[in-house]
Design a protein that fits this description.
Blueprint (H helix, E strand, L loop, with lengths): L5 E3 L2 E3 L4 E5 L6 E6 L3 H19 L3 H17 L1 H12 L3 H21 L5 E5 L9 E9 L3 E4 L7 H13 L3 E4 L6 H4 L2 H5 L8 E3 L4 H4 L1 H4 L5 E5 L2 H10 L4 E5 L4 E5 L5 H13 L9 E7 H16 L19 H16 L3 E4 L3 E2 L2 E2 L2 E4 L6 H4 L6 E7 L2 H9 L3 E2 L1 E5 L3 H10 L4 E4 L15 E2 L2 E2 L4 H7 L1 E9 L1
Parallel strand pairs: 7-8, 7-10, 8-9, 10-11, 12-13, 12-20, 13-18, 17-18, 20-21
Antiparallel strand pairs: 1-2, 3-4, 5-6, 6-24, 11-23, 14-17, 15-16, 19-22
Length: 472
């Protein structure tokens, strides 16, 4: 079995705490790595702090070269990385390959953005006191970044923290999920050979106690966390004076209007509702279908869901496989059972076998049910009719989340109204809320997070503006 070492301070480390990572589909070992100790983290912090000056002074061409080198290495190892990603996460291979491709694009976009860090000339002569003065605003790196990435996109969401940090000129210590650290650690040698300063990037699986030092240690200038709201908001409270960005998920709503192209909408909604077993922050969870097309949409929707192929994530034909672990599958099953007990009707699915849960469709739900009000993070959707577009908007806005939402419509008035009325970070027209391009601003409001990801927007968070005032 392959061992993947910790990478910190430009060195490859082993510790006395081994971590075996298992394939959620069949329970076989996917690989072995190690958990960093407090002393290992302390060394990485000191090394990262020592690298701050050199990283801040890196010219854009060197950052561009390093990021393009990383992108090229990922592209060359695409198949191997995708297979490892599928093994450690049970993500179907077709989606694992897509994630690897997105990680490549993330690096390429960051490389481009490293050449155009924001700067601005300001005319200060707007008032008499500013006469014969001008200003130059330039953005400087904040310093050492702490990154914590989740299990569901173990490569690309880690790169969404690492690549902007490199582009901004910030050293970063990244803690991957202990469930899925291998695909990222398989790239440790790539970072090592990228030409970046020692200490620029450290990849360190840790237990929760050690990992929490990324939150509380004041030597970090910024914390970037992707995960659950309960954990994220607690981290923000404990983070002290450092900057914090949080991407915390949601329970995305989808509206299907009478003007929508149903035949186009259905396959996209199946993908949005069930790709990677719904373990996606922008999983299409709540569907609101205008009453006159409700029956037509629902029948086509369920027919296409039945066609999904379940099985081994390494099978190129597999559409849906196991969830990340039995505990999460059991939690989702309990939420479904609770909804049924309280009056919901199951149109499809509901059965669990270990970590696998069938694609499940519920109707006659109520907004206070967990399957509606909380982020289910599983292969379950609710589908309900509506009679008025304003009613549908209000139902999408209901609750505590606000990450992304979608509207299938060919009426520009509905598009404009949705954009102005939906209280979310992104409104997607004629596609599912699961749509994301890696250079677009991405994040939410309410319980869904704080700040924005998307390469340029992450770079802005990882830099601070400074003004130079000149007299002439």
């Amino acid at each position: 079995m392959i061992e993947y070492k910790i990478y910190a301070c430009g060195k490859f480390l082993e510790t006395d705490k081994k971590l075996t990572v298992y394939n959620p589909f069949d329970g076989t070992p996917a690989g072995i790595t190690f958990l960093a100790s407090v002393n290992d983290l302390e060394d990485a912090i000191n090394c990262g702090l020592a690298a701050e000056k050199e990283m801040a002074e890196l010219p854009s061409w060197k950052k561009y070269r390093a990021l393009m080198f990383i992108a090229g290495e990922i592209r060359e190892k695409r198949q191997d990385i995708a297979r490892l990603l599928a093994l450690e996460s049970a993500k179907p291979l077709r989606y694992a390959l897509g994630e690897v491709d997105r990680a490549i694009q993330t690096c390429v976009v960051a490389a481009e953005e490293s050449k155009r860090l924001p700067r601005e000339y300001i005319d200060l002569e707007w008032t008499p006191s500013g006469e014969k003065r001008e200003g130059l605003v330039k953005h400087f790196p904040v310093g050492l970044v702490a990154g914590i990435s989740p299990f569901n996109f173990p490569l690309n969401l880690a790169m969404h923290k690492i690549a902007p940090a490199i582009a901004a000129g910030c050293p970063i210590i990244l803690k991957p999920s202990s469930s899925t650290p291998l695909s990222l650690l398989s790239l440790a040698d790539t970072f090592h050979r990228s030409g970046l300063p020692e200490g620029a990037v450290s990849l360190m699986p840790m237990d929760r106690k050690t990992g929490n030092l990324l939150v509380t240690d004041p030597r970090f200038s910024l914390l970037s966390f992707t995960g659950s709201p309960a954990v994220g908001w607690k981290m923000k409270q404990e983070a002290g004076r450092k900057k914090v960005t949080l991407e915390l998920g949601g329970n995305a709503g989808v509206i299907i209007t009478p003007s929508a192209d149903i035949d186009r909408a259905v396959p996209r909604c199946v993908t949005g509702g069930f790709s990677y077993s719904g373990q996606v922050c922008i999983h299409a969870q709540r569907f609101y279908i205008e009453n006159s097309v409700f029956k037509k949409f629902t029948e086509k929707f369920i027919t296409q869901i039945r066609m999904l192929k379940t099985g081994n994530p390494l099978d190129p034909e597999t559409d849906i496989s196991s969830m990340i672990d039995v505990e999460n599958a059991r939690r989702v099953e309990e939420w479904v059972d609770e909804a049924i007990h309280n009056g919901a009707r199951m149109l499809l699915g509901g059965r669990r076998n270990g970590a696998f849960l069938e694609p499940t469709v519920l109707t006659q739900t109520r907004e206070e049910m967990k399957v509606c009000s909380r982020e289910i993070f599983g292969p379950v959707v609710t589908i309900e009719p509506y009679f008025d577009f304003d009613e549908a908007l209000n139902r999408v806005n209901g609750g505590n989340y606000g990450l992304q939402a979608a509207v299938f419509t060919n009426d520009m008035r509905e598009t404009d109204k949705a954009f102005h009325r939906l209280r979310v970070g992104g409104v997607i027209i004629n596609d599912v809320p699961t749509f994301r391009m890696d250079h677009m601003p991405y994040g939410g409001i309410k319980e869904s997070g704080f700040g924005r990801e998307g390469i340029k927007y992450s770079i802005l968070d990882m830099t601070e503006p400074r003004i130079l005032v000149k007299n002439f």
